[in-house]
Amino acid sequence: MLFNSLTFLVFLTVVFAAYYLLPRARIVWIGIANAVFYAYAGTGYFVLFASVVTVVYILSKALGGRLRKPALAAGLTVVLGNLFFFKYSLFAVSSLEDAFGFSMPGGFGEHSLVLPIGISFYSFQLIAYLVDVYKGKLQSSRSWLEFWVFISFFAHSAAGPILRGGDFLPQLRRINGKTWNSARFKLGLAYLLMGLAKKLVIVELIVPHVNEYYKHAGALNGVEAWYATYLFAFQIYYDFSAYSEMAVGIGYLLGLRLDLNFRTPYLSANPTEFWRRWHITLSQWIRDYIYIPLGGSRVKEWRIYFNLIAAMTISGLWHGAAWTFILWGLYHGLLQAVHRYYAKLVKKFGWTRLYSSKLYRAAAVALFFHMTVIGWVFFRAGSLADALHMIKQMLLFTGVEPSPRVWKFVLVAGCFYLLHFAEHLIVSWFKRLSLAWQTGIPFWLRGAVYAAVAAALLLLLTNGKASSFIYFQF
């Protein structure tokens, strides 16, 4: 059930109405809504999902006793086994077949599996829950229903943000006490409409062009490859941030707080800052459950670099079962390691004054944005050969010539970047702009604007087929 569909808006309206009309049954009602939302995509995968959640819930009850280690091992085996089978088994088999020149009986490596919706996201939540309960950082859930609502909450289940038990379970335990709050409702509606606008207007405008260019990736010159990947950089940002902001908005409508996943990441000056602003909840998960357990920054210097590269490579593998995704993660891991070494040199030679200047930051933002764009080629290309061809052409700057077509590419890419910067300014000045809007604009004009925006989005929803969100495939 796509967020950008009339079906979902009807579903959300029913959930919202029942939530406030039946306050004593909220946890039950949300639990049912989660089941309906997930089962809408297929009853088989819903049964699988509910079964995994139930098994983990039962095992988590033993994490505080003498069987805590076997219970943890069993829980992780169930979660990772489910994830590996659906997401990585065919990739592993086909890679082995290619490496050793044999074929599995029945052509297993040539088959395809439909990936259950949100499997990576709910797997990460289950792993975090098991580890946190095992380490005593979190008390196990009080009931299966509470645990089911935590793991399957429909607002985020398909593509995040990744929820943590320490943040979300206490909110569920206070859910019956949530009262109507008009300010919170307006904020939730604003996030919901902002996400819809990003998806229906910006993303749908970009998608056909990106698809067309990448369909012929092996024949693109440098200018075309840069342009195609500039567009994809903004497509994936606006697509993923749209879903995340809609999830946050739905949370506010129900009196629940979900973390923002994006903070205008293309204004980052280095890889460390980028991963604090891009897919924030995943970055925090990778830090807490992979990087720190590997030793984090508490080990020898060479191990720190290894840990950075390993953690980001695993992040790449999480995104998809293909060598292109692994190389994308490895590339970002190398950027992290190089930046750490560079920061040490800056400190050693006393360049910190230059390092903190506005001119330096502007240059660093421009440079790192283009390094990020190069990485996106691995993420989007259909094959490793296509990705390597495009990157080669981009680095050689083939096709650069002062023609109207090239200037059009520059203008379009520049406009999207300016839009991204404008978003940053709006977020930074949100309170002032909101106050000016509420006090400086007559209520009838505000109402007319709201109605026009809602009507325009409704018209876009009813015209054409709604496209899926990119991160649904992960």
Automatic annotation (TrEMBL):
GO molecular function: acyltransferase activity
Transmembrane helix listed as a keyword: yes
Highest taxon listed in the record's lineage: Bacteria
Naturally occurring in which organism (per UniProt): Paenibacillus protaetiae
Membrane topology field: Multi-pass membrane protein
PANTHER family: ACYLTRANSFERASE, PROTEIN-CYSTEINE N-PALMITOYLTRANSFERASE RASP
Transmembrane segments: 27-59, 71-93, 113-131, 143-163, 183-207, 304-331, 359-385, 406-429, 441-461
Keywords: Acyltransferase, Cell membrane, Membrane, Transferase, Transmembrane, Transmembrane helix
Family of this protein: Belongs to the membrane-bound acyltransferase family.
Pfam families, per database record: MBOAT (PF03062)
Location(s), subcellular: Cell membrane
GO cellular component, one term: plasma membrane
GO biological process: alginic acid biosynthetic process
UniProt name for this protein: MBOAT family protein
InterPro entries: Ac/AlaTfrase_AlgI/DltB (IPR024194), AlgI (IPR028362), MB_O-acyltransferase (IPR051085), MBOAT_fam (IPR004299)
